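Marked as duplicate of an earlier ticket. Keeping the data here for the record.
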Amino acid sequence: MLHHIHRHTITIIAIKVDRVFLNAPRTRGSITNCDMFSVYTEGGPHYCLNKHLYAVTPPMCILIPRGTWDQDQQRGNINGLYAIFNGHGLIGSDPQNPRHTRVSFDDQQMSVPFLKPISTADAASLIEHFQAIQSIYGNALTDKIQKASLFLRALALYCEATPRGHGTNIHREAVRLKELIENEAFKDKAMEDIYSQLLLTAKHAGMLFQKAFCMSPVAYRLTLRLSHARELLISTQLNVNEVAAAVGFKDPHYFARIFHKRYGLAPSKIIADFSVKRLASDDK
């Protein structure tokens, strides 16, 4: 029988940046008193959960329920974000597999690894979700719903992500395509024009990229555009139309709709929220 949970109830306590440098590995472990969800782009070489030692190579994710014995043995440069939350039964230990976390939602459940190496693209997307949660400062009902929605999307992405290293080696054409997309992500350019530079058809390009990075070329470019748009909305005085044009969208209304779907917030709300924050800072 599944453990009962309150539907859609999540209490996000904090989203934190992990330490940048650790001089030596920890020698003592501790029992976690909250649920934890972490994503790392740099770190290692080991992590110990419930006394099982994992050799880790970022990017990677760690999902551990409260009550887990956690000994962080990372050392050197570390870069990542982690969420401290109360899932109210959303995640728990898996009695069938001590190296896995059980995720339960409504009347369904699945088992996922405590620690999973993931693709660079998945790591970037998870970090964006965490940062979007960080950008919501209020505690009104709508703020809590937006945070919970973003968190559930991040958790679903982790559950669906194919562990890095499963499958064939990354095709060099896929790597070249990724570089081209990154170089031309914010230009008003059709994807077919990018494919043609490598003499690839859209179908073949999509197949290679999906196999290598677990997402489509179009989805990857969209992730780059929306991530950069979010940075511009927060850090510049540009309006929504100007930001849309700066990241390659002809139609600002389409941009606003896609942005809201990804982050759960309208671009105009982000501008308004950070304008208020800047004014408050200037008044001090």
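See parent ticket for discussion. The CA atoms of residues 137 and 143 lie 8 Å apart.
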